[in-house]
Amino acid sequence: MAWMNLIIAGLLEVLWASTMKMSDGFTKWPFAIATVVGMALSVVFLALATKSLPLSTAYPVWTGIGAVGSIIAGVIIFGDHIAPITWIFVVMLLISLIGINITQGH
């Protein structure tokens, strides 16, 4: 269940980052409210995950899901242009997160 909470927390990171962009500097209230709610829920789910996962694993995975997810959301939803070399670094980030998980506790 801890991993599910962590994945939900990471996906909520992507949600609030996307709605923050959509809020246009917090001038569009529905998106601004969604941003704040998404932030709060993301932290709640992270806290639940850290009840049984080490912080040294949970926090980087949480931020990693948020970072990679936000890049993908930026490209798909907002039409952001990402240089090809940037995708290499995104893959390296994913590999790093997998490495953190694999070596956890060693």
From TrEMBL:
One of its GO terms (cellular component) is plasma membrane. The keyword Membrane applies. GO terms for molecular function: transmembrane transporter activity. It comes from the Bacteria. Signal peptide: none annotated. InterPro entries: EmrE-like, Small_drug/metabolite_transptr, Small_multidrug_res. Keywords: Cell membrane, Membrane, Transmembrane, Transmembrane helix, Transport. The keyword Membrane applies. This is Uncharacterized protein. It comes from Weissella minor.
